[in-house]
Design brief:
57% of the residues lie in helices and 0% in strands. The longest helix is centred in the middle third of the chain and has 18 residues. The two termini are 16 Å apart. The protein has 15 helices and no strands. It has a single domain, classed as ADP-ribosylglycohydrolase fold. It is globular and about 45 Å long.
Length: 311
């Protein structure tokens, strides 16, 4: 499989592995870690069902394919199709969406202005935009965009649902990390580049204080007890990078991510997208792939995205 398909499959596996145990307590999971695809857990859906992470990722891909580029109004419309028509869902039913995303899409539906629909309050800094950044990172890499254009795309696409600067910085860091890895860097090398990056090109340094543990310190050195796994975008970014730096296979990365507890699908998908690129398809357990819902749909859309990005 190509890096594009490895990324999307990794994301979907991590998402689906995390769905049944979302909001589970870490202590409970570490006492009895989940190591296989489950169903009928926190949500009453069969094994292999993905959540909003994959649904919004697929909607973003579909929009970029049809628009032949990044059109945030069309992306927002596709996200509304997901919410209103159950499109891009694994079972034909919407079962996972954050309040920030829901209210942002309601504002877009009324105003048709995708750039001003996203939440701006600190309370809206959840994972709603971060979890759909993988297609944007892939687009930026294959289209060989400059950092300024990457920033512009991240800013606009995040702002559909999450317009606070902390969400945008989180998305930018994740996109840059994935691009470094697509360029052949190891996760360790990519993380060093993330820490050395001159963020003041685009961001007021006062906002970067929120990212001190990630940039000024070495997140890999922290203990698991110091890693939080709630729905705050900075915590999700920290947890994802921490897991990737402290595991050495696709399987161990996914298991490590989801057993942190709480936002298991989010951290599973964010970790899986990058782990898929790092470790490739052959490292993905066949039983996990076979359990995924709507593989034909994922394959079809991924093939189209691959064709568009690589032609």
């Amino acid at each position: 499989m190509s890096d594009i398909k490895n990324c999307i499959y990794g994301l979907t596996i991590g998402d689906a592995m995390g769905v049944p145990i979302e909001e589970y307590d870490r202590k409970r999971l570490l006492n009895k870690p989940v190591t296989k695809m489950l169903g009928w857990g926190n949500y009453y859906v069969p094994e292999g069902s993905w959540s909003d992470d994959t649904s919004m990722t697929l909607a973003t891909m579909d929009s970029i394919i049809e628009s032949k580029g990044v059109d945030i109004t069309d992306i927002a419309n596709k996200l509304c199709e997901w919410v209103n028509d159950n499109k891009y869902t694994p079972t034909g039913e919407l079962f996972s969406i954050t309040d920030t995303t829901r209210f942002s899409l309601m504002r877009f539906w009324d105003s048709k202005n995708a750039l001003t629909s996203g939440g701006v309050k600190p309370s809206t800094n959840d994972n709603g935009s971060l979890i759909r950044m993988s297609p944007i990172a892939l687009y930026c890499f294959y289209k060989k965009l400059s950092d300024k254009k990457i920033y512009d795309l991240v800013y606009k696409t995040s702002s559909i649902t999450n317009a606070n600067i902390i969400s945008i910085i989180s998305c930018f860091i994740y996109v840059k990390l994935m691009i470094y890895i697509l360029n052949g860097k190891t996760i360790e090398e990519a993380y060093k580049l993330i820490r050395r990056y001159k963020y003041d090109k685009f961001f007021d340094l006062s906002y970067l204080e929120e990212f001190d543990r990630l940039i000024k310190e070495d997140i890999s050195k922290l203990s698991i007890d110091e890693i939080e796994s709630d729905n705050f975008c900075v915590h999700a970014l920290e947890a994802t990078i921490w897991v990737l730096l402290n595991t050495n296979s696709f399987e161990s990365a996914i298991i490590g991510a989801i057993n942190l507890g709480e936002c298991t699908d989010n951290i599973g998908s964010l970790t899986g997208a990058i782990a898929g690129i790092v470790y490739k398809n052959k490292s993905m357990p066949k039983e996990w792939i076979d359990s995924l819902q709507r593989k034909d749909f994922i394959n079809k859309l991924t093939r189209k995205y691959n064709t568009y990005l690589t032609k």
